[in-house]
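Note to self: keep these together.
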Amino acid sequence: MLNKIKPDSSDLNYIFLFPKLLAGPIVKYHDIELQLSHPTHCYEDIREGLIRFLTGLGKKVLLADLMSPTADKVFSLPASALDPASAWLGLACFSLQIYFDFSGYSDMAIGMGRILGFRLLENFRTPYLATSFTDFWKRWHISLSSWIREYLYIPLGGNRVSPARVYLNLCICFLLSGLWHGASWNFVIWGCFHGLILVADRAFWLQWQQRLPLLANIGITFFLVAISWVFFRCDTFSHALHFVAALFGAPASTANAVFLQRDTLVALVAGSTVVLLPLIQEKIHNPRVRIPKVAVLASLLVLLVLCSGRLTVSSFAPFLYFRF
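Structure:
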């Protein structure tokens, strides 16, 4: 009888597996059960894992951490000192910071898992190129959205119930998603905002958007996602309201503009390029073009040197999502 409840080596490996952290990717046991019971390991795993780990390190150190000071400075300004230019600069920095910080962390966790012989599921898939909120949540924090779908949305009835109940289920799921990030009214508003936009997607927007060009749909979705980040980042609800007011033209009563620093500008341009790169590649993709392995190796060495140099001269910067 005791043997039936005694955990085997696969169970223990899953419990102690390094990349299996709540911040993501959230690894469910059944997703890697076969890998735990029948582990495999080869040189390709180490090579691909190192590439993925260095890519994530570059996102974190060279992009997210460079945008963090400006974002922090803007979001710490009092309402009386927040002008529209500073507000939009801070929001742009934070929107890219949270993506590259969290995506970089996920890349590093997936890469470390691959080095150890585990092939974990993807957690991000170019979310800022989403054409709707429905599409966004298929691309952003995929492990969380799949967990919500499997353990909340489907048990509540999923798509098998009436449209009104489907809408209610979506709102409940994303209200709980907001609370999962923190016990604050701002996270509740953030979750409800996403839930309501997803309801609008199902009710009419997914049909209406077919009349718009691709770039317009991407732009509208990113704009709304960025606005929702205000509630995610601000400390209080009143702070978030003042910040949104500043975005849409509320003048500052005192002059305290945040000037764009060179490092921040470089990070913004580089980050925006990385975000748009898959869309650009899709337009000009030529399957005959192969990148030489030497070029890949040289790029990784340059990335390693840049990250090492940056880490040497900078102070400790924890992953942003560890706060939630």
